[in-house]
Each structure stands twice: as C-alpha cells, then as structure tokens.
Request: fold
Amino acid sequence: MRQLIDIEGRLLGEPPCDLAETRRLYAAMLTARLYDRKATALQKQGRLATYAPLEGQEAAQIGAAAALQGDDWMVATYRDAAAMWFHGYTWPRLLLTRIGDERGGSPPEGVMVLPPSITVGAHMLHAVGLGWATRKQGRVAMTFFGDGATSEGDFHEAMNLAGVWKAPVVFVCENNQYAISLPRERQTASATIAQKADAYGMPGEMVDGNDLLAMRAAAADAVKRARGGEGPTLIEALTYRIQPHTTTDDPGRYRSPEEAAEWRARDPLERVRRYLTASGVWTAQDQAQLEAAASADIEAAVTEAEALAPLGPAAIFNGMFATPTPALVAQAATLARDLGRSIDLGER
Amino acid sequence: MIQLNLALALNQALRHALSADPEVLLMGEDVGATGGVFRITDGLLSEFGPERVIDTPVSESGIVGAGLGMAIAGLRPVIELQFLGFAYPAYDQIVSHVGRVRNRSRHRFTAPLVIRIPYGAGIGAAEHHSESTEALFMHTPGVKVVIPGTPTDGAGLLLSAIADPDPVIFLEPIRSYRSVREEVEDDWLPEAVPLGQAAVRRVGADVSLVTYGAMLPEVLTTADQLATQEVSAEVIDLRSLVPLDLEAVLASVEKTGRAVIVTEGHRSCGVGAELIALIQERSLYSLQAPIQRVSGWDTVVPLRGNEDYYVPGSERIIAGVRRTLG
Reply:
C-alpha cells in the first residue's frame, strides 16, 4: 500500500510536491474539516436538512483533487464536499444543496464539477462519458465513490466501458470501511477493491487514504496516464468514516467506539501537521490564524446561503426543459389558480 | 418518385445529422459494423468512422450513463437501445439522471441526447421484443417522447429530436420499418418536423380516432372501412407524447363529439387513460358519448400464437367506434 508520510509525520519517500504546496493542501484540508464540523452543527440546529460528514477523509479527497487541472472534470458524491470545494464548487452552493435549494446544484461557470451525486454508483458512468468526450483536449475526469458503490452494477459498467474505450478517467474509491452499516468485508468477497481493476483491463492501486502525499502521488500518476492516452486507473484510498453515515445514523448499532478511536489516532490532518511542523514551515500561530480565517470564510458562506430569497414555485416548472411544455405551463396555472397566486414561468 | 420506407428515412436523417453537426455521434449495440439489427444505421460507420459511430459493449445502463456524460460535455449522442424490452436496465439512468440533470443544476448542465428505441409488437417476435411501454416515459419528468408513424415524419422528427436541447426518447415502430411506404420526390431530403405538433391524417365528422406510431396504419385502414359503413372518422396522429399537442386533439373532439384512443400499450395508466383525463377536463360538454380506449391489456404481450388478441386490430377499433355511436 502506497504510503509517504507515517502516522508520526515522518517522510517515507520522495514527496510528490514541495513544502509550499504541501502547506497549501494542509490548509485546504483544515478548512474542509472546519466546514464539515460547521455543516454537522447546522444540521443539528435544523438549518440543513441532512448532512453526510467527511471527517477523516480529507486527505483522500484533497490529495486526489490536487492532481487535477482547472478544466478537468470531477464527478463526486454527497460526501465529497472537500474535493468538490477544492475544485471550485463554492461553500455557499454546497450548503444550498443541503438547505434544499436547487441553486446549489449549479456551480459557477467554468467550474467543471457536477452537482453532488445522491444515487450510489450511477455517476461514475457520467465521468466516463465526460472523459471520453474531452479526451482530445487532453482533459481528464476524476470520479469519487465509496466502497459500497463498488457493488452496484453501474460501477462495473463504468469500469468496463472506461477500460474498453481507454477513457481518461481516474476512479477514486474512498474505502471508508462502511456503507452506512455494512462493513467492507461483507460488501465484497474481493480481498481488495483495487484488484477489481484487473477485471477491466486497467491498473489498480491501494493507497493509504489518510496520507495526503501518497494520495497526491497516486492521483498524479493516474492523471498523467489518463492525459497521456493510456486510459483509466482505479485508486483504492483506504480510509475511515469517523462520523456517522449522516446526522441521522447511529453507528453504535454496528461498530465499536474503540474502532473509531483507533482510526482517530491515524488522523490525516495530524500527520501532515507534524510533518510540516518538523519541516519548520508550520507553527501553532499559523494553525490559529488559519482556523480563524477559515472559520470566518465559512461563516460568511453560511450567511450568504441563508440570505438567499426562496426559489419560488415557478422553478418547479421552468427547470425541466429549455422551454416548459404546454403540459407544464398548464400544471403551473392549475397550481397558481388553486393557491390564488400568480406563478410566472418567465423568471428562470 | 421513389418509395420511401421508415427504415430508409431514418437512415437518411441520421446521415444528414452526422454530416451537418460534428458533435453528433451514434452509439449502441451493433450500430456500426452490422448497421443495426434493423439496418437503420446501415453504411454510417464506413461513411463517418468509428469515432462517430460506436459499437458498444452489451451495457444499456452504461451506454445511456456514458452518453449522458458526453452530452453534458457538449456532444450530441444519438443512442440506440436495441429493443424497448431491453431498455429497462437503462431506465434508472433515464429517470434518475437524464431527465433530471437540467433541473438539478438549474440549467447549468443539460442533456441534449436522443435515445432511439425500436418498439411495438406485431412481428411475432420472441418474449421481450414486443414492448410498448411509452407510458413509462410519459410519466418520467424531464424527457420528451416522440413516436413517428410515417417515413417522412420519422426523418423529420428525428432531426428535430437531435437538434432539441433536451433529452428525447424516440420510439420507432418496428412493424412499420419496411411495411409503411410513402412516395417522395427523387431528390427527397429529410426536413425537420417540429416536436409537439400533432397531424390530422384524415379529416372526418363523426368520430376522432387518436393514435400514433405502430397503430397509425391500422387506424387509417380502419377509417377507410368505416367510410364504407357510412361513418366518417377523423384520424389524429399525435407524433409527440411529450410535448403533447392537446389543442389539436381537443379541436377534433369538439368538432366530432366522439373519440376513440387507439394504443398498443398496457391499458391501466396508459396513454389512453391520460388522454381521456385531459379531454374530459377541457371538453366534457362537447362529448356525445364516453371516450373509448382500444388498447393492449394489463398482461404480458403474448407470443405469436396469441399476439392478435393483444394488439388492437380493425375489429376492435370498429367495435370501439360503434360504442361511441350508441
């Protein structure tokens, strides 16, 4: 299993990036951790409908995302806020997806990230199509999914098509050991998820998913292969879902607190912090300053998201097609009449 | 003048679309080297090459899901699923993603793709090869549903479907591929027919026969028979289920006062049921009699031996008309 920083923060091999870049990625991981904590808190206050925490998976997401260029595609899941934000999806829009406003599904122009996929498995196929369509422009598609997703038929169809077409896709499986309550050992009889790549004619590699530099290096290798026309790669990032599946889940029903505690000791942020501190490029003051600045940014994002005026019912009818069909126009009119208000489909 | 059939018309439309727009590509099982099991894509691989006409693995969900990714990236995939009975593995991609991506992203990401699917019974085929479940797609938000009944319509509606900014399920009546012919000029070229516009195929005064696709030829033949029995039938060919040209149907029903909806699909919650609901909402007081549905049954489409008891024929359509005349 590829590993470049151990739990104590000691470097084990050639780093894929310099200290300045590592520091930048650490700052991103820390920011993502703070967002994750904030979103969890907001859900408990009823200000977000549900939230799927990513604590413990920051290195897997940001390490992989860091290997991409701006116009590479990213197709990720409901648990991948860190990766999506890193690739340009803003915090306010990520919050809006959780507040329950479709405007959250629209990243800024030029941000090549699809809205977070709620269904498990289907989105990997979209990445295959995106990658194939943009292969001549030298662009790559990276898709994130969990260990549970590898049991879905669409995972197999996506891997198969990507292999046959030599599509420039990087498949990043965040094996966080649980699909809600089902542990990894009962998800598949394969010894590893990485070895499934063999069946589809592509290389597969297991990486320490809590090791930022190992993830960064493995993803860079996969991205380089893809961009060079050599086809897809599967990376299995071995990590752990520290928090529940979502804020309504109760992990006490299916796993022990000791297990989660063991994995907290392998915290991805902590080992990078130790590495940077030992390298003389990170201090307690840096930490405090970043936490303050990131918290302020996240607060501002929450304020921005919550300040948005409601979408309004016209959006129900004018979002389905470029131009609403006569049936949709009639249905909107029925709703308007029944409620005694006007619904103007012209406001898109 | 030449005799044009639906298969040739569709082939020409695809050729035209591939020539006119470099973003258009075809993908599906056996569409390339074989030219499609019904030869609809015949000759297109050699003319346009393997990057425009793609033979895919047997992977319906995969083809549609990957096609969706291509469409989001700016291409215009024209996907073929070999039979409607084999399209169901792709239904999740259609209902959960193809029909939703625009709404999910507030128009930021869209899906300008076409899924062509041969459909319908009447050729004594093996199980699963005779489906007519267009109602499933009419019930699926975010997808348009188009079903040509004639060759020139096939070409014209297909061109419009390919040019449409939204996903179109394009159902092709298998038993009409070669049996329905139109005479056209020697220099005929496909011309776009707009989606959402029904066609009055036959003007009449006594009853409106509303239908589309594979049932159109049978309904037209039946209208001729009715004429010999002194019943003047108007025939409305819907052409699109989504968007639906309800106004054309209402105009006809308000004129004749009687309607028979003829469809091949299963009876419950079928297209006939929806049309009757719509017609009675708007034009109840124009009706002289309850509207009749002549449809398939809530059964599996029988194999060849019993197929004629399932697919509506003249006898059942005339019986339906007689019921409206009281």
Q: What stands out?
A: The mean pLDDT of chain B is 98. The interface with chain A takes residues 56-57, 59, 61-62, 64-75, 89, 92-93, 96-97, 99, 102-110, 141-142, 144, 165-166, 196, 242-247 of chain B (CB under 8 Å). The two ends of chain B are 44 Å apart (CA to CA).
